Amino acid sequence: MKRTLTPRATLTVVLLTAACSSGSSAASKDSGSVTAAGAAGAQTATVGMTDSLAFAPATVKAKVGTLTLSAKNEGNTPHNLTFDDPALGKTGTISGKETKDVVVTFDQAGTFAFTCTFHEGMSGKVIVTAAGTAAGTAQ
Q1: 90 to each of 83, 128, 130, how far by Cα in Å?
Q2: Which of 88, 85, 94 is closest to 116 using CA atoms?
Q3: By the 8 A CB rule, do 91 and 124 touch?
Q4: DSSP letters for 34-76
Q5: What domains can you pick out in the chain, each with its CATH number?
Q6: What is residue 135's predicted lDDT score, i.e. its pLDDT?
Q7: Which of 20, 38, 118, 133 could form a disulfide with 43 if both were Cys (CB 3.0 to 4.6 A apart)?
Q8: How are beta strands 28-30 and 33-35 bridged, if at all?
């Protein structure tokens, strides 16, 4: 027997789907990137690290100033987050289901790459714009 949804059942499914997918977080994720939340001197953002050897999201948008970047290992494989410029910092080993922070001060706009040194090709970047411009906007 074939079942079809009534208009009322369809509306209920749509509303439940919308309710489950909405919500807020300190930083907004959009198409593979996250925009840091907070004032330029106290920004925060989180990137996940997966067992499929990827940062999710791989791009963080921030402003010139201080960023606390939380690296959250969402799987069981150990990872780390190390900026290509050693002066910017690194997290050390992050075991499965663990989160570590790295506090970075960006003195100028630019793109700053980071990697997991345990897994070749696992990389991401922080795109920093001047404090007076919208994060992620080209100057």
Answers
A1: 6, 18, 23
A2: 94
A3: no
A4: EEPBS-TTSEEEEEEE-TTS-EES-EEEEESEEEEEEEEE-SS
A5: 27-129 (2.60.40.420)
A6: 57
A7: 38
A8: antiparallel
Q: How far apart are CA 84 and CA 78, in angstroms?
A: 19
Q: What is the pLDDT of residues 1-48, one digit of tens each?
A: 554 545 544 333 333 333 333 333 345 444 499 999 999 999 999 999
CA distance 14 to 97: 33
Which of 68, 120, 66, 54 lies closest to 99, judged by CA? 68
pLDDT at 134 > cutoff 70: no
Cis peptide before 57 (omega within 30 of 0): yes
Which of 29-38, 47-56, 84-93 has the least mean pLDDT?
Answer: 29-38
The token pair that represents 111 in the structure block: 């793109």
CA distance 94 to 73: 7
Closest by Cα among 29, 21, 23, 65 to 45? 29
According to DSSP, residue 132 is labeled T
